[in-house]
Amino acid sequence: MTARTDLHQHAWPVELLDALAERCGPGPRARQEGDSTWVLELQGEPDHPLDERQIDLHRRSGALFAAGLDRALLVPPLAIGLDALPDVDESRALLATWSSAVRGFATPHGSSFAAWAAVPAADPDPRDLERQLAEGAVGLALPAPALADAAALDRVGPVLEALARAGRPLLVHPAPPAADAAAATAAWRPALVDYPAQLLAAWATWLERGLDEHPDLRVAFAALAGGAPLLLERLAARGGPVDRARDERLVYETSSFGPRALAAAAQAVGADRLGFGSDRPVVAPGEQHPPAVAGLDPARLTTVAAARLLGESVAAGAPVAPALELVAEAA
């Protein structure tokens, strides 16, 4: 049976929070308030409280099964810039702390949780990746700016080649907005402007160059690649590579989008290019059920794209409607 998968959750193990509490330099810090509440201090953003629901993976394990899911894949804290600290060695050490903590939880709890690997942005060393894959990581998570343009893609080329040799997938996830931009805007603006812009740039780079330069790599883009499937008519109108946007090596993870957008995305790229992700606990601490979308089988939403991405076998099922053919028009 194909595992029902949430491709995108986050974890805040106490071991990492303890390490962040000891930091003095720029970037993320943490402090404890009371017995079970922590507060993340993020540069240029309001303090972010974390309660037991967000920290305790034991609780989330039960909620996972209540939602009809078999497993969740945990993403390293790329959105707070843990991979991009000024001190590369500190980034490497904190990422290792996170990885060790979530691995220590996942191992005795069967296959309910697994983790994506991460490497320091300033030193994407294939040896770091290979070690984490050997320790059980399912693939590599990169911040979207690592694929922002051709030069960025070249910098991470060696680590992507190592990932492809291992037959493991890539997840592209937002990075934090620039500190000065975050400080000057409403709290909701990064999620509506900065994150989608990062993801769309990475997606465009991948269509233009990544698919050819790394043909064996399977890639998932968080948050529908910033809403990319909803822009395919515009892509067609500009003579862009619409067929590449529907390539079977690509998965559009669904977090933060609702039924209307997901129905439109399924029409644009095909239902089996969409893979369920909740972004829990960032988006919805108390809810992680796959959304009810007209015309989409929730069982397929949690299985088909995830299995293809992870290189697993896909159980036979009913055929789904193909993507719509787009006719280029002036826009």
UniProtKB/TrEMBL annotation:
- What residue stretches are annotated with the Amidohydrolase-related domain? 6-307
**Keyword Secreted carried by entry:** no
Q: Which Pfam families match?
A: Amidohydro_2
Keyword terms, alphabetized: Lyase
Q: What is this protein called?
A: Amidohydrolase family protein
Tell me what organism the protein belongs to. Patulibacter brassicae
